Amino acid sequence: MALMYGPVAAAQDTSAASGNGSGTQTTSTSNAAPEKKNAAADKDKKSAKNLAQVNVTGIRASLESAQTLKQNADQIVDSITAVDINALPDRSVTETLQRISGVTIDRFISPNDPDHPSSEGSNVTIRGLTMVGTLLNGGDSFSSNSGRGLSFEDVPAELMAGVDVYKNPNAEIIEGGIGGTVDLRTRMPFDAPGQQVGFSTGVNEGDIAEKSKPSASFLYSNRWKTEDFGEFGALVDVSYSELASQTDGIQLEPFTLRTDSAALAGTDFKQVYVPGGAQWRTLDFNRRRIGISGAFQWRPTNNLEFYSRFMRSIYNMDWLERGAIYADSAYDMTPAPGTTFKYNSQGIFQSGWMNSDANYTNYAGSADGVAMNGDTRYQVQTTVTTDWTNGFKYNLNDHMILSGSLQLVKSTSDETDFTIFDETYLPGLYLNTVGNHGMPSITVNPASFVNNPANYFWSAAMDHFENETGMERAGRLDLEDDFADNKWLQYVKFGIRYTDRDENNNSSPYNWGAITEPWATISSSPSGLASLNSYLTNESSLYSFSNFYRGEVNVPSLYFPNAALAESYPAAYAILKTIEASGGWKPVQLTPGDINDQGEKTKTAYGILYFGNDDALGIPFDGNIGVRLVRTDVSTSGEGVYPNLAAYSGLSDPLQTAYYGQYFPIAANQHYQNALPSFNLRFKLTDDLQWRIAASKAMTRPDFSELQPYLQLGATLNTNNTEVLRWSGTAGNPNLKAMVADQYDTALEWYFAPTGLLYTTAFFKDIGNYIAEETETEVYNNQQWAITRPYNIGNGMIRGAEIGYNQFFDFLPGALKGLGMQANFTYVHSEGGVNTATNPYSGQTVPGFSLPMTGLSPRSFNLAGMYQYGPWQARVAYSYRSRYLLTTSDASTSLPTWSDNYGQLDASIFYKIDSHLQVGLTLNNLTNSTVKTLMGPTSYGNGVVDYHLYPRGWFTTDRRAELVLRGTF
């Protein structure tokens, strides 16, 4: 507890990771807490007080505060603090987290969508695991659109006082992350000695989007003493920020093994690999993030404190995409008549004029052309997350503290996704897969063909929506007892916690339907197709892809449906239905399989003992040992549906009578218990050198999507529809249990200066109950069905090491002493994970092969140069992660998809005008980095596997700059 008395003024809020063992209860009640009487605590207390007297600000103060948190924590923790108000090192929480060793982020709008990168990061992983626990001020928090955890991109960075990452948590910390736990800390009024006023304002712009967007934040905090009612404190912190960016991308369709004469023509190869097509897209992204944080503290006596803390974040995101894709149904592109393909020495396609195997007699261009779809896609999403916590802390006597809280978390998310397609058949298309900078380029001949709307027709539409609501009510009670003057025992803590969570998630399928197609025609057109020059002539226009990929990639202009039409869902249906074929696209309707309502209750109890001795082993040591006992109760109800065979007259009457698409109820209620022991030991080898040992067991509950109580049964018929060849189905699994991990860490830490640290950590995780899909035989209605659903069947192992270094070079003369450096490197190795692959020719599922766990980069590092001297401070930071698996089966390609090596350089520079104001510039993606994705291996069944990793996509996004003015009074 000694730290709670000192560094609060310098670090704004250090209680989250302080040596008092309070874990994540950051209620800032430090002055009311009883003082520990042991010598080690007294020593830490004196050091903390000395630190608080040093008047430092900016980068140096934040680094010093974070280092103090790490050194005095009762477990292994890494922190980033914002000593200055609204001054986290990056403009988003996600990008801030990536600066911590072992923490990496994705560069995609959604982690499950590798076709749409983002200019801001998403999806935090710790030591390669996506199963990350997310806390806000020590309490559980979540976003309804991200499963179990919090979408860090939803949370305004301006509201944060700091971020703590626990990689091997002790028994006090709320369970939920086998990768680790991230705790976001907001400010409290008692963190500061008196009134605080802070603000920031700025404007940012990307060099591709060329749209200026504002940001602003304001904080007011104060505390007042009264004679009769004790001391009061109040704080309000609001933020607003917008961002606009543009992403250009070009992609190749899957490469397939070819042995046909057309593909082999002009070569000596026996087999070659040819891409099934290509696509290019431009995406305009807009984001608005609003946050408000409020806090009230009341200390009626020195021994009693009440607090109320509130935070709400509102995240609005929309993006508009114009995408072009050419491919045929089996990826069997052939050389255009009179031409041959060019290959490299391995038989991999390099360039050639292409022709599709598709040929529709009612469309003249299809005979010697390539089917090209142009889509205008608009997605809009709003996520609102509210967290309200009320609590107290009471000093029962000079050695016992009782604390408790009640918490309400509610999150809602609404998403609408609507796409309109047009189509053409390009008579001459040349693909070069190794063009400028190794990226593909596309040429059309004649070039004027794409400029004529008569060569296009209205093709299809697709819609999808999600409405999700999650609510959790939680209560906790904790008792701490101090062993005064005991040479071995410091204190003990016990606690209980109860949660009641409801999840109501509605998610429709992606509902594709034809408007007009060669096989879905209308009578009013001679070709049966609704051409763009004759139908809805004001609803499409030519898009030029000007300066595409900053002019480095050549792609043709195309006609696309207008943005205003895609943005007007569902009103667009009234327009499109006037031209569409009979039975064409209709707006999606929810079915019982799209509705997922679940309830979950947890009961938790923990106990933890803190101990230490300065003399018994010849060197001072301390530590803690504890256990967290968790019971999880799950209640779900849903439906199963049989196939509808009544319409197939060739089947027997009993089959038609038994299966007519009827629903039947499914209900599941289960519970499971987990015991989560933890042990932490620290040896203080010298005043500056310490060695830590940590062991614990962690758990992560299944996502609610995996628990969904819905069963879709199906029947595969023969070509004559007279016999059922296969009975199958897909389902969620409400009987899944939590994944667990036995984890071990050891760390050596050398604190050689107030802002000087060198550390290394080795870690090992043994993961059990890993969740993976498997097909098993189940019986319904006396019939055996092959049901594919998730099971707890897998095991995994992760091991690795981290090394980190921080220092300001105070020994240098004059202004050079303002130089500093931060660096860290992480190596992770994993085993476990099996992919179920899809044959790109037949579409049939084939046996898989071993793959690493998703989200795990074997190597990652951060390197930052810092400078703070006089009124100037600056930072240049480079972050890198190596290739990692994004998904075992991408929705577009059905292949494993990887994100290739990626590094990005960011920078900032600030000038302090006076003691209250500073102005600065922040810069992102100075390296103009390319997000590159890969695909493969490809399994064809019968033991035939193509182990090549083929290029899938190249994406570039804005270099961003923001001019910022900050003030503190």
Automatic annotation (TrEMBL):
Residues 34-47 have a biased composition (Basic and acidic residues). Its main location: membrane. Residues 414-926 form the TonB-dependent receptor-like beta-barrel domain. Residues 1-48 are annotated as: Disordered. Keywords: Cell outer membrane, Membrane, Receptor, TonB box. It is found in: Cell outer membrane. Residues 70-181 form the TonB-dependent receptor plug domain. It comes from the Bacteria. NCBIfam families: TonB-Xanth-Caul (TIGR01782). PANTHER family: PLUG DOMAIN-CONTAINING PROTEIN, TONB-DEPENDENT RECEPTOR-LIKE BETA-BARREL DOMAIN-CONTAINING PROTEIN. Belongs to the TonB-dependent receptor family. This is TonB-dependent receptor. The lineage of its organism: Bacteria, Pseudomonadati, Pseudomonadota, Gammaproteobacteria, Lysobacterales.
